[in-house]
Design a protein that fits this description.
Elements lengths: L14 E6 L3 H10 L5 E7 L3 H10 L5 E3 L2 H5 L6 E4 L6 H10 L3 E4 L7 H14 L3 E3 L7 H11 L6 E9 L15 H4 L2 H17 L3 E9 L10 E8 L4 E7 L7 E8 L2 E4 L2 E4 L9 E2 L15 H14 L7 H20 L3 E2 L4
Parallel strand pairs: 1-2, 1-4, 2-3, 4-5, 5-6, 7-10
Antiparallel strand pairs: 7-11, 8-9, 8-15, 9-10, 11-12, 12-13, 13-14
Length: 348
């Protein structure tokens, strides 16, 4: 079977998907699923049958609509469960899917606590199913460019890297009630800044071994600190910084910068030894991670990678094991800010 729009030969397996959480992100996944000839949505599960049916009708899907995940898990033809629900539901639904021997797509963050993370990893390992976590910036052209240059040595030894997730959600039409409570969304980092944590981990390619953090809040509309600043120490001695602010009054901004002994990136600007005689940063035309709109995000890359890994029995990345390190950084940051001291990783 061939992937639509490409000449790549794929396995003949048709992968049946059950979508849990028919919202904004689910629509982006459906768009990407439809670009493959080997993926079919067979179930949509919402909080009510009416909500699930409305999503099915909106995207002209030919599939069942439910308000109970168990109906899809009992269907032996379902291969993949896409967990795209509010953050506090990810752990329970992922564990249930794994126990039913379904592969799992998990929207970020994977969960809200270390206890949940431990249980999820245990269930996935025991079931030996494959997972992928929705850190779609792994397929953003700018981040891929930076990562490739790090791997090829064009930046030399990495000294310092940083990323900022700056996105005011207070009072916005697209902000849901569950975004505003710690019980359902988690912290500023868990809800959104985890993209920045994961981006730094991805481009640097090193393990975080220590976290120091501060947080603050200037709004009563979020019942958690809306702003977090995190300092990172990597296992090779390099350092990093991540900022996450959900209460700022400004357009969406995502910065990514990496500084090395031979060259440095500041977003899509590069300076270094690669271009002798260079006197300033050179701008590289590419697609930046500069929009919060899911239609701008590279879900095609994530879906292609996951399905291709299933077809070839390879490990997808970032899977739950990889994303666990991003989650632990976010959890450690909350602990560090609360206790006023550095926290070592991995968490115990």
């Amino acid at each position: 079977m061939r992937r639509e729009g490409s000449g790549e030969t794929m396995a003949s397996k048709i992968w049946n998907v059950a979508i849990v959480g028919p919202g904004w992100v689910a629509g982006a996944y459906v768009t990407s699923f439809r670009k493959r000839a080997d993926v079919r949505v067979t179930h949509v599960i919402g909080r009510t049958v009416a909500k699930a049916r409305a999503f099915v009708d909106r995207y002209s899907l030919d599939c069942a609509a439910h308000d109970d995940l168990r109906a899809a898990l009992a269907d032996k033809s379902v291969d993949i469960v896409a967990v795209l629900t509010p953050n506090n539901l990810h752990a329970e639904q992922t564990i249930a899917a794994a126990k039913a021997r379904k592969h799992v797509i998990i929207e970020k963050p994977v969960c809200l606590s270390l206890r949940e993370l431990t249980a999820m990893r245990s269930a996935v390992r025991a079931a030996r199913v494959k997972t992928i976590v929705g850190y779609v910036l792994h397929w953003n052209p700018l981040l891929q460019m930076i990562r490739r240059n790090v791997v090829e040595g064009h930046l030399g030894q990495i000294i310092y890297a940083e990323a900022d997730y700056l996105h005011g959600i207070v009072g916005k039409d697209y902000t849901k009630a569950w975004h505003t409570t710690v019980a359902t969304s988690g912290t500023s980092l868990l809800l959104a800044g985890c993209h920045a944590v994961d981006a730094v981990r991805f481009v640097v390619g090193r393990k975080v071994v220590e976290v120091s953090a501060y947080n603050t809040s200037r709004t009563r509309e979020l019942d958690y600190p809306g702003t977090e600043l995190v300092l990172l120490k990597f296992d090779d001695g390099s350092i990093g910084k991540v900022g996450s602010c959900l209460e700022c009054n400004m357009p969406y901004v995502f910065n990514i910068e990496v500084f090395g002994t031979k060259g440095s990136f500041r977003n899509n600007q590069f300076a270094g030894d690669a271009f002798k005689g260079q006197t300033g940063f050179a701008s590289i035309p590419t697609i930046l991670p500069d929009s919060a709109d899911v239609s701008h995000h590279p879900f095609d890359g994530e879906v292609d990678h996951f399905i291709d890994c299933l077809n070839r029995n390879r490990r997808p990345v970032p899977d739950l094991e990889d994303a666990a390190e991003t989650t632990e950084v976010c959890l450690a940051a909350e602990t560090s800010a609360r206790l006023g001291k550095a926290v070592r990783l991995p968490l115990k």
